[in-house]
């Protein structure tokens, strides 16, 4: 089968590898129907020390179950499923509290990779996979796009709003205008925010966010951006949703909050010098981590997509074949597309 691999910094190619097999009793083999490139994949893509042939870090897909291990009872061969990037067990304390993104039982191996491929072996499949009614042919391409977002970016955007405890009437600021930031705007609106400001410098992304429920856009950064947000809101924000993963984005988020505000961060951190003590004088509540994909999808996000209440699939602004995976990465890296979808034959 074909699978994407990193060939060197700034380049992705295809390799022919063995099709995966069932190894553990709770495995599932999935034939990928749609996958995509995540903003977090670009960290590996840009890494100057990446080794040739390194397995791709792709982790989002929808697909068809080909085979299941003997302990898998929740899905069967032929089922159409969301393939989340997380592998919660559904039974531990963390999962039962709604934090399957950081399952207590699967610490260290709770995230997928290698999903930009024709087939994958999905570990801990029994609870984590989410069954979609019918088959891919039953859905429009637009709906397939929205279903694909449920593997990561829509639940991740929702997670930022949940852990920041966004409530009806809140004033919310979203830092990051990529796919996760766009979905955080949708999530803030779902939870009843009265004002939603997106911090963005890109006109196409600003327009998308305004169509999804943002009430204002701020292009400025640093102290100038903070001042502009506070001017629009008439003070600080109740909640800030950080969807980037850099120290600068955290600084921006903390700066827009009023004392006693709440920060939800879901950008994978690429910094190590942000001290929690720095929030003490502001009484800021800080929470974040990987999203509870399975919990949110099963409880309400899948229904919201199927009912047409939300349309997160609009973040896929370009589609590619697996053979064009290098261009899919390149276009995201150069901000020519918000999120690249890979359409499998």
TrEMBL record:
Which InterPro entries would you find in this protein's record?
Answer: ADH-like_C, ADH-like_N, ADH_Zn_CS, GroES-like_sf, NAD(P)-bd_dom_sf
Name the protein family. Belongs to the zinc-containing alcohol dehydrogenase family.
Domain Alcohol dehydrogenase-like N-terminal span(s) in chain numbering: 25-133
Q: Which SUPFAM superfamilies match?
A: GroES-like (SSF50129), NAD(P)-binding Rossmann-fold domains (SSF51735)
Needed co-factor(s): Zn(2+)
Source organism per entry reads Streptococcus mitis
Q: Does the keyword Metal-binding apply?
A: yes
User: Any idea where the Alcohol dehydrogenase-like C-terminal domain is?
Assistant: 179-288
> Organism's domain of life?
Bacteria
Q: Name one Pfam family in it.
A: ADH_zinc_N
Q: Which residues form a coiled coil?
A: none
Q: Name one GO molecular function term.
A: oxidoreductase activity
Q: What is this protein called?
A: Zn-dependent alcohol dehydrogenase
